[in-house]
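Dear colleagues,

As part of the handover before I leave the project, I'm documenting each prediction I ran so the next person doesn't have to rerun anything. This entry is a single chain, and its sequence is reproduced below.
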Amino acid sequence: MHNISAFCLNYIETDQKVGSLLGAGFTAKGSKYKKSYNASIIGGTKPVITVEPRQTRSGASCSAQFGIIGRNDGYSLIDEARRNTLARGYSTVALQTSKGTATAYQRGNTVLRIGGRVSSGYGSYSTFVYFERQN
C-alpha cells in the first residue's frame, strides 16, 4: 500500500504518472497498473491489485482495487492510505460537502479526500481505496 499511496499522491500533486509502481512489480495495462499475487501471499484464489489514475471534473483522482483479500485486511488498507498521507506531510482539515462535514487532507494548496469500501461476494472480500483531489 505504501507504493500505491506514494504513486497516487504524486499523481494528485503533479498530474504526472511516475513509474514507481513499475519498480514494485506492477505492469502497465493501458491507463491502469496491475499486479497479481500468489494466492498464498494474500489469501484467496486470484488476488490482483489494479491502480487507476485519472482526471475527473474536480481534478486528479487515483484508485486502487484489491482483489480477493480478508475483510479486516481491507479496512487496514484504507487506514494505511490515510496514515501514509499524514506521513507525507498532510494535515487533516474539515471539508464541507453536500452531505455535511467530511475529513480531508491538506498540504499547501492541495486538498484531497481518501476513502474506500470493502465489498463481499460469495464468501470473499475485495477493497476499493480512492484518493480524490478537491481543488
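The chain has a mean pLDDT of 87. The chain is about 25% helix and 50% strand.

All the best with the project,
I.
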